[in-house]
Amino acid sequence: MLNRKLNVFLPLLFAIVLALGMYLGHQMPGSNSGAQTLLFSRAPQGPLQEVMDLLKVKYVDTLKVADLQQEAIEGLLGHLDPHSIYIPPSNVEEVNEDLDGAFQGIGVEFNITADTVNVISVIAGGPSETAGVKTGDKIIKVNDSLVAGNGITADKIRKLLRGPKESKVMISMLRQQKIQQIEITRGVIPLYSVDASYMITPEIGYIKISKFAGTTYQEFIEAMRKLQKTGMTKLVIDLRQNPGGYLDAATRIADELLDDNKLILYTKGKSYPRTDYDCEKPGLFEKGALAILADEGSASASEILAGAVQDWDRGTIIGRRTFGKGLVQEQFDLSNGGALRLTVARYYTPSGRSIQKSYANGRVAYDEDIMNRFNHGEFVNKDSIKQLDTVRYKTANGRVVYGGGGITPDIFIPFDTSRFSNVIANMYARSTFSNFAYQYYNSHRDEFKSYKDATAFTKKFELNNDIYNAYKTFAAKDSVRGIESIKPHDEVEIRTRLKALLARQIWSYEGFYESMNKDDEMVKKAVGILQTEK
Questions:
Q1: Domain closes at, from 383, 415, 447
Q2: Which residues form the signal peptide (predicted)?
């Protein structure tokens, strides 16, 4: 009975619903203009997307739409801060690898001289060492691709050598005038960010951090434990030319140096409420004299660490005024495989100062800031440092510090302009130093076997006149001008650099920095200060 009644009234019910729908549709905006009703319309497009759509459909010639989109994005970001950037799909993997701290490949460092790919270093424990690759080998072919004598570039050889973990690659190597076929199984290759850690004196340790990557904190902890086992009670952290990286890496290292629950920094942005980053656990080095080395190339996460140490009077900042980057970026993946690294907040040191330098005059002026500092004399005279922010902030002990353009060091060390004469600059530009060191080491390996480690090499090895004269002959053949009129300070630079590069051939960056730091003014100043502190 109930079903019969429903069957009678269903047509009437449908008619009522249909009439109501037609009435409501007539009353909606756009119903009298022939447009779709709001019920089915999409959100209106912005003019930028409308232009792109019209270009794709209506333009007279075929366009490379991806290139146009990239230029449009970069043009848009060009009106923002200098650190908001677009990363094209082709660059995303390389950029992420650099900060993730690893890539997949065969594990060698190489350079290209005279159209030849030379293996200058084999990563210990990596796939190439396992397969028998040696420093001094020359790469002739990668699988079926000839890479010698055909204008090979670093990017091309890098793409040929890298590949998925466990994949195999056949390398033809020239060793002592004989071709050797070596099959290498690719693996995960670490990109270290702690370049060196060693004892400068029986009580003072040294750690060089080149960037703040995904593995930096763990590398730092391992270096600290190694040094503490050998008696370290005082520490130098070298952040010179460290461009920054992950915020998390900097805050976790700061937590190892500061005690209690001290504030490390806080961030704040239009769409990001204030977030405090505090110490959360007991650290490995909360007590003990500390010095941090910094210069105009120390930026971002480096300034976070230096700023926290300075504001809490935890240690001494030595060097020159840092870069001045107080902005925080977040990376967003895009549908085309690219990424947008967008500034989302500013960060502030514990005293409340922002150290971001002004970008009000555009990116060109921003990029020229470091050169302007040099021309103004700031690199050689502390009194030439301009404090752009006149607000006076206080450290924990009441010392006055300023923001608005980097971290000003507690102790200023001038830049040694005499190190870079025209002849020295020419040698650097042509890679003459590294090319000679590579060739000399490979033809005199037996001479270096008596040095058990980089420390022994640094203390005992002297770059004699035979090596120095051989280098001058090499440089002259390399078309370096001015060899005949080298001045005494040029000779000191040449001998120092060659010794360090020879150490690098054997002990990688650990050997390089231990050798270079022996006569480094900032390091010597740090050691002098730490030796006077308890």
A1: 415
A2: none
Cα separation, 384 vs 414, whole angstroms: 11
Secondary structure class of 58 (helix, strand, coil):
helix
Taking every pair of C-alpha atoms in the chain, what is the biggest distance, in angstroms?
Answer: 117
- pLDDT at position 383: 84
Q: Which of 234, 325, 357, 525 is catalytic?
A: 325
Structural contact between residues 175 and 442, judged by C-beta atoms closer than 8 angstroms: no
Tell me 1's DSSP state.
Answer: -
Judge whether residue 26 has pLDDT over 90: no
148 and 283 together in one domain = no
State whether 163 and 128 are in the same domain.
yes
Q: What confidence tens digit (pLDDT) does each residue in 302-361 have? A: 999 999 999 999 999 999 999 999 999 999 999 989 999 999 999 999 999 999 999 999
> Quick one: how many helices (H) and strands (E) in the chain?
17, 21
φ, ψ of residue 236 in degrees (nearest 5): -115, 125
> If you count them, how many residues does the chain have?
534
181: helix, strand or coil:
strand
Residues 409 and 430 both lie in one domain: no
CATH number assigned to the domain comprising residue 270? 3.90.226.10
Q: Which domain holds residue 438?
A: 418-525
| Residue 257 one-letter amino acid | L
The whole-chain average pLDDT of the chain stands at 89
The answer to whether residue 311 is catalytic is: yes
Instruction: Look up the pTM and report it.
Output: 0.87
**What are the residue ranges of helices labelled H in 368-451?**
369-376, 422-429, 432-443
Q: For 76-96, what is each residue's pLDDT tens digit?
A: 898 899 999 999 998 898 888
Taking the C-alpha atoms of residue 421 and residue 490, their distance in angstroms, rounded to an integer, is: 7
Do residues 185 and 225 both lie within one domain?
no
Question: Which residue in 143, 147, 145, 146 sits closest to 110, CA to CA?
Answer: 147
| Active-site choice (121, 172, 197, 300) | 300
Residue of 519, 277, 528, 320 whose CA lies nearest to 419: 519
Marked catalytic residue, from 311, 369, 410, 520: 311
Q: Name beta bridge partners: 209.
A: 194
Confidence of residue 388 (pLDDT cuts 50, 70, 90): confident
Structural contact between residues 506 and 303, judged by C-beta atoms closer than 8 angstroms:
no
State phi, psi for 335 to the nearest 5 degrees: -65, -25
Inter-residue contact 355 to 328 (CB < 8 Å):
no
204 and 151 co-located in one domain? no
CB 445, CB 501: distance < 8 Å: no
* Secondary structure of residue 109 in the 3-state scheme: strand
